[in-house]
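Researcher: Please predict.
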Amino acid sequence: MNVIQHLIKLRCKSTNFCVTNLLLVLSFIFLTTIPANAQTGNVNLKLKNVTLPRLFQEIEKQSTYRFSYRDADLVGKAPVTVSVKERSLKSVLTDILSKRNLQYQVSGNKILITVSSVQTPKSTGKKEVSGVVVDERGEPVIGVNISEKGTTNGTITDMDGRFSFKVGNNSSLLVSYIGYDGQEISVRGKNQFNITLKENLQALDEVVVIGYGTQSRELLTTSVSKVDNKVLESVPYGNLASALQGSVSGVRVQSTSGQPGEAPRIVVRGGTSIQNPDGAAPLYVVDGITRDDINHLSSNDIESIQVLKDAASTSIYGAKGSNGVVIVTTKSAKAGKASVSYSYDFTISTIGKKYKMANAKDYLTMHRTGMIMQDKFPDASSELGMAHGYGTGNDLTNQTAFTTQYLNDSNRHKLNEGLQSMPDPVDPSRTLIFQDNKTSDLAYRTGFSHNHHAEVSGSSERAKFLAGIGYLKNEGTLRATDYNRFSFNINGEVKVLDNLNVTGRVYYSNTRTHSSPFGTDVSFFRNASLAPTAKIYFEDGSYAPGAQWGMSNPLYSMSIAKYTDKSENYTLSLGADWTILPGLSFKPQIALYKTNTDKNRFMPAYWNGPSQQIKTREASAYHTEWSHYQADAVLDYTKTFWEDHNFSAMLGLNYTERIIDSIEAAGRGGATDNITTVNGIAERTKASSSSTTHKMMGYFGRINYNYKNKYLLTFSARYDGASNLGRNNRYGFFPGVSGGWHIDQENFYPDGLKKIVKAKLRASYGVNGNINGLADWAADGNYSVGQTFFGNPAIRISIPANNDVKWERSKTFDIGGDFKFLNGRLNITADYFRRKTDHLITMLTLPPSTGLGEVYTNLGSLENKGVELEINAEVLRFGKDGSWTIGFNASRVKNKILELPENGVENNRIGGEYVWDASKKQHTWQGGLQEGGTMGDMFGYKQLGVYSTDEEAAKAPQDMLITIEDRTKFGGDVNWLDADGDGKIDSKDRIYIGNQYPKWTGGVSSNLSFSGFDFYVRADYTAGHTIYNWARMFMDYTLFGSNNMTQDVVKYSWKKQGDVTDYPRFYRGNFTQCNATGARPGSMYYEKGNFLCFREVTLSYSFLPEIFKKARISNVRVSVTGSNLLYITSYKGLNPEDGGTDNGRYAMPRNVTFSANLTF
């Protein structure tokens, strides 16, 4: 192990990095120059009286070659008896086949068997037909069976996909190839044929990627979902993880921000955390290398995505896999002819949703009349003449922020320059003039994005390579936001020896992101609620700054700050596949995954409103280097005993070391806006650095056994050690076991039913560890520095060490079934699971006498239960190649807290609300964290309506949330529920309103294809989560004081005695009456977040290959795609996907993409 550790600890400093690149370039050149006629390998054979197919199977077991032939060409051929040791495959095949009037050709790893000389009986009415067969990408297909209908006359395609033979003048050709739809083609009046095969997904035995290997879906005994590659075809994702949304069951994917390149939140089966359920991110494995995310990967480089969900499938990853595992495989070199492809996507993006705000006339009417209040409140009429958005104290100079004024001779000319007028609602004898600006639109723009990707691949007999390069320029719909990514993927494989393949891979990406200089509140609802009467431009044509920096003119404020994030990411790996003996192979791999991130911030001098210039000029710089070193060694063995007993075993070890180095500096007081870096500051406010390391060592294994592919059994286990656990508990053992039963293969299964449905039942149980929430040095204690003790430097213990901190442990039971109806035209997968996670890592509060605050410990347990369903169906087949397929998936997850640390409180409750429990007819503690409960419960005051008249309001319960002595209610005030009926409204009258976490997630898809056209629709849905729409409440009832309100307040708010509505009166008294303030979260602003989003609608057309044949273009596909086109939801905020409090959200952009893909 020391050798491996030394290898992976090589640091990629400048010299080493150059050497690495040089080696990779040399390897690339080597891959492309290996001669095509390299020597074939040797074989050991001892067979007696076997058929030719049996001979070919034995050779395939001992080599990487695969045979293609027509069954009819082998009929009647003499059986084979052969006994050779270390004899060349070339001589064996030549000797055996030549005696049977057969010949062979080698291309890459394919060996094509054909008849040496085709003898066509002499007859009349025969003609020569020829052609070429390609797949949907325009690539030639080798070994396709072409036969004359009703005869044994036929041939197979050669290395270039071509065929030629004689058939009857009026006959038909039958075209067949495993995994593709068969075709019947009339030859009448035609001699030349160009045939395109269409893949038959139902006919294929799907292979899924699992931990450290692959497995046939038919033999799979665990819960694994695979993302349909249609999802990756047409959308140029800024973040690859978005492709998972609605694509597979059991995975909650939430697009919480429209910021380009932003990663969605992903939680598999509800996660395993009590403190932060949304933070229970899965493990990502990219080409065998573990990482924390899949940011900055280009979707153009992706071959497949799979999700391992139950513990039996994830236990092979031990402590890292408790929150699920997402396995991503990038495109790799493949055998075949050299090809070049290029794709381009042009995207137009508009903001998906904006707030519907009041216009200037409504704004002025509501605000100015809202200053007239009952005698209970202080007189606010003096504000009508101030320089507010609704006040008349503004003028035409640069000293006021708004346009509202009384009409007079000095400003009358502005009516000819676009200003509007209206009678003053509180003094109709006077005229107001003002500008009506759609300030809520100013922050947004139409974004234009470009995505380029080029790829070249090829192979010889002993080598293959692939190189891809891409560039994405993704403009955001919020001003000043964008994401740019440059990436390349180079990989290759060399057959060094007949039994040894060596692979190398480089994946690199460089990104630059510009984000908003403001928080989500200012960016998305405070700026949007800037009064419509605000000045956008001053009289001299310069930008007006708005009311203040926290409610500004976006044209001004979004163009000032310089906020840039840069990231450089690269993955280097070197691996091998050594076949030691037939069925026994060894696969080592060493890898480095490294990310360098820089964040630079600079705020130049700016105007905070029209009268105050801020010259703080704050600057900061942050740099971090994230290095992940990994070494794997895997030994695989496969053997079939007595024909029916299939056995495979795998043993391996995995070592990872992750190092994070960071440095940060910040300051203020720069002398000029021209120096945007930290070296221009006059006063340092922060300077810090850190370095941290985490190491893990794991030993793992898996055994698969099946009898006649009918009874299936898998056992896996991993023994892990981690550096950040307590010294007494650093190692853990994590086993998993699963079984499957093809019940349709039993004798008692009715023969008639076998033709209708194939059924496989499966069950699994496994254990995972988890340390995701544990800092690198947590068990050893935390220490704070930078302090003094009696004038001397001091180190203070902030968190004491705990050598007994151990793994969180998740135990999962899963039972499910896979059902295939009508020969694969309808496929259903269903699962039920229960997961219990105990030994939860948490912070325990220590007694004050210790002088310490908290300590890491293991306390508490959590239960997740759920059901999952996936349905895929081919609804129709029509015409020559038409089909309609649909897919559907649904998942429900429920969490329950089973155990918490003992704290002397009922149910060991932490936090919570003391409210009325209607079922128990008493006040109880609800919500928070407590045994028997769940996480994320939300409580608020129930709004019954609005008092229609003063007389009705006079009967209201005494409202204790009104902080002044006079608690009188009036018509237009909210009627709150007195839940406990004690005649008072107080905190104990809050009720359960909802939960921030969704109950149901899922997706639906449909694909209609015919004659080259494809119409694909994909949607996803989420239901059961509640959102507290703080942003809407802020705008509706002017928590800022003079901001704009939504149109709902104008239309529906109470305005006069007798009005019946749910919206309270709009007046300054709202603050005192607590009708809608942060002090009283009312039920009207707790909204259901349920939604159905049409995530993708694509219309594409693939041209026939012969159209562009002269230009040497084998495939052309064009498409137009709409993404995030429509959210069907009742939620009134900008983004319904995330539960909890909406404090401003970046709405998902509505995109239209035009794409072209060419293959040469």
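Model: The first strand starts at residue 42 and ends at 50.
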